[in-house]
Design brief:
Length: 77
């Protein structure tokens, strides 16, 4: 079992809604979260960096994860 590496700090903000003002919410920086997740050894065997088309035994296309969908193939990096 792999332990998680470093815990990221939470940031606090407030937002005003129509019926309620000064509502607190907590968040973490998106860039920090991505870096944090990519360095986790516990996820190393489950990360996907390539697109994949999957088919069933009859040759029909199947969609199981984001990287197997048609829209994912259209994203250009």
């Amino acid at each position: 079992m792999c332990a998680m590496v470093d815990q990221l700090p939470w940031q606090k903000g407030t937002v005003d809604f129509h019926l309620q003002k000064n509502c607190a919410f907590y968040y973490r920086d998106l860039g920090d979260i991505v870096r944090y997740l990519l360095q986790q050894r516990a996820y190393a065997d489950h990360l996907v960096f390539v697109l994949k088309q999957e088919f069933d035994s009859e040759g029909h296309r199947i969609y199981m994860e984001m990287h197997t969908g048609d829209w994912w193939w259209r994203i250009q990096v």
